[in-house]
Amino acid sequence: MFVAAGLSTAAAQQPDLADPPAAPESEPSAGEPIAGLAAATAALDAEDEVLDTPGPEIEAYVTRLEAQLTLRDRLDHGEYSEAVPVAARLVELTSVEFGERSTETAVAISNLAESQRRARLYGDAEQNFLASVDLFRQLGGEFSESVITPLVGLGVTYQSMNLHPEAVTALEEARTVSRRIHGLLGEQQVDILNHIANSMVSMEMYEEADAQRLAGLRIMERIHGENSLEILPELYRHAMWLRDGYRFDRERDYYGRAMNIIRGLQGNQSPLMAQPLRQIGNSFRVQKLPEGRGIGSLKRALEILESQPEPDMLQIARVLRDMGDWNVAFSKIGPTGDEYRRAWSLLNGIEDGEEWQRRWFLEPDYVLREYPSTRGLADRSDPGALPGHVLVSFDVLPSGRTTNIRILESVPPGLKDDSSARSIARSRFRPRVIDGEPVPAEDVARDFTFYYTPRESDD
């Protein structure tokens, strides 16, 4: 199967969540330091993973509160590599204050593992999640509620390591504890079930994955009622799940159901109507179907939001952005960029507007995506299949069209060069916007990955 990974070289994406648990080989005796504490303090000295030396900055954290505040700030700002040594220092301080075998230390080790996971230090994260689970169970028993968070973190870590059977095991264990503590309808299960479904898709267990997602939706329906506003977020998540599986008609059915719920409880002019309307428009665009109902849904969402007594400018800007995407994807005479300009202008007047401008408009993103042909490729499960890729560089014009397409690297050379270049030429991108004006973007990159079976004549 051809898997196209649309990653810009200018912006690294965060890893997907992944995790499963594994029982430690042996429990430490009462006098031994726990494995998590040893790993945490070792992280301060690991020259190749964190810092050359702990340095005065890390040693300066002399109180737990100081280290906690710094850790939270670095995580909030996405400074994950910088967060790791702070989290390790926090484990040290917590252990000194509360003891190595304390709930507080177990929490600190779990937080260190989460920092390591976000920094993509998956091996270290795995060991510390396991240490945290082990310590929580020593303190609170096999079904301690505290083990749920590190078990889910462990599962997410395993997913990032492409160890999906292990991820499912860890996540199922977390769900078992959750059901025992919170009952069969505990809402905490829903996110766990969604993680399990993601791993099952990676294992090509599609029917089982659908069953997990539906189980989560059914739990929300039984807790809140089938026609309540509380189930809307889960309806939207399930609709996006269907979109990811290219089941667009079924996706739009769920948005229609959401609209019926909102209409029945709050009427046709409720601002809540904007979300399903906007996603219906986006669904048609992702399907590459320029049907009038798509742009009509976006216009209706904009009309509803602008008619509110106190309009939500961020939501209006989001709809305008999506309308700009629609015009880039389907306009026959060329997009004007007016929707992007209006969205940018609105963001100037809201809190965190600059961050939204950067997130939406700094790096070109697909608005209509063509994939390379899968002809001549192998399934990754085929014996002898090898991974290949084509790295393509190109420029994006203010119209969203591409030019100056170059193949930077291909493995094996020539196998999918033409197909990958052609897919970029046929795709459309949201252009870069600077100070409210669409501008050219140079040296944008996409890396297409796939599996192939080498011929005997290949070196």
Could you explain how this protein is built, in words?
A hairpin with a 5-residue loop joins strand 3 (386-396) and strand 4. The protein is built from 18 helices and 8 strands. The longest helix is centred in the N-terminal third of the chain and has 19 residues, at 80-98. It is of the alpha+beta class and 459 residues long. The chain starts with a strand and ends in a 7-residue tail after the last strand. The strands form 3 sheets. Strands 1-8-3-4 form a 4-stranded antiparallel sheet, covered by helices on one side. Strands 2-5 form a two-stranded antiparallel sheet. Helix 1 (35-43) runs antiparallel to helix 6 (122-140). The radius of gyration is 25 Å and the shape is globular.
Write the layout of secondary structure elements.
Layout: E1 3-5, H1 35-43, H2 55-59, H3 64-76, H4 80-98, H5 103-118, H6 122-140, H7 148-160, H8 164-182, H9 189-202, H10 206-224, H11 232-244, H12 248-266, H13 274-286, H14 292-306, H15 313-330, H16 338-347, H17 353-361, E2 365-368, E3 386-396, E4 402-411, H18 417-426, E5 428-430, E6 432-434, E7 437-439, E8 441-452
Antiparallel strand pairs: 1-8, 2-5, 3-4, 3-8, 6-7
Helix pairs in contact: 1-4, 1-6, 3-4, 4-5, 5-6, 5-7, 6-7, 7-8, 8-9, 9-10, 10-11, 11-12, 12-13, 13-14, 13-15, 14-15, 15-16
